[in-house]
Amino acid sequence: METPDVSLFVEVKEVTPDGTFHGIASVYGVEDLGGDMIEPGAFTKTLSENPTVPILWQHDAHEVIGSGTLKEWQGKIIIDAQLDMDDPTAQKAHRKLKARLIKGLSIGFQTIKATFQDIVADGASKMIRRVQELKLWEVSIVTFPMLPQAQVTRVKSADADARLKALEDKVSALSAANATQVTEPAKVEEPQSTTPEPAAGHSGLIARMDSLRALIPK
Questions:
Q1: What is the pLDDT of residues 166-202, one digit of tens each?
Q2: Burial bucket for residue 185 (CB in 10 Å: 0-12, 13-18, 19+)
Q3: Per-residue DSSP letters for 130-199?
Q4: Cβ contact 29:6 at 8 Å
Q5: Between these two residues, 111 and 123, which has the higher pLDDT value?
Q6: Is 212 among the domain residues?
Q7: Cβ partners under 8 Å of residue 50, min gap 6
Q8: CA 98 to CA 96: how far, in whole Å?
Q9: Which of 13, 54, 79, 114 lies at a 20 to 30 A Cα distance from 23?
Q10: Is 214 in a helix, a strand, or coil?
Q11: What's the domain count of the chain?
Q12: Helix (H/G/I), strand (E/B), else coil: 208
């Protein structure tokens, strides 16, 4: 098993007692300081076989301090990890991360397929190893990062997750209430005429009808 320093720069924004974090375990197409470049698709087979790997302390196989699940996303390998906060070494790693004394992650892998390329950069020739397929064994918290383009993007907060869940529940409740509320249509009153109806003069009408009858020849 190889454990090259294909490491990540960790920007820890918040560390909480639950020991979970989310980050980037590797980046495709970027040369690290050791001269390795992982090609797109190199992780596809190994992650399909086993997406969850141990989290080690400084690549020490005797210091398993948690586990992480990885997936491919937009040219990167994303990790969701959980430290074993009952383990003394994990507690030490947690303290170092919290104090921002440790900022690195590194992958340990076995190379399955790779090619070497001789390139010229800054007037000097150098050899790059392009890794096309690998078998991932572990991800480690390390002291010295070598791949600054990769980073831990979030260390989860249990309190923040609870607040977010409460907000989502509140929004769902309001949406349900709005969906069940029936709005009665406004009553439309018939327009009333402003001109009063004339009062009926029944006696006058009868007298006029009698006078008209008198004019009719018999």
A1: 545 654 565 566 555 544 544 545 455 444 444 445 5
A2: exposed
A3: EEEEEEEEEEEEESS-SEEEEEEEE---HHHHHHHHHHHHHHHHHHHHHHH--PPPPP-PPPPPSSPPPP
A4: no
A5: 111
A6: no
A7: 136
A8: 5
A9: 114
A10: helix
A11: 1
A12: helix
Q: Give the amino acid at 32.
A: D
The answer, as to whether pTM is greater than 0.70, is no
Distance, CA of 123 to CA of 177 (rounded, Å): 69
- Looking at this protein, which amino acid is placed at residue 150? A
Distance between CA atoms of 44 and 134, rounded to whole angstroms?
Answer: 9
Determine, yes or no, domain membership for 149. Answer: yes
What domain range is 7 assigned to? 2-158
Tokens of 161: 């997750």
Is the CB of residue 153 less than 8 Å from the CB of residue 23? yes
Do the domain assignments include residue 194? Answer: no
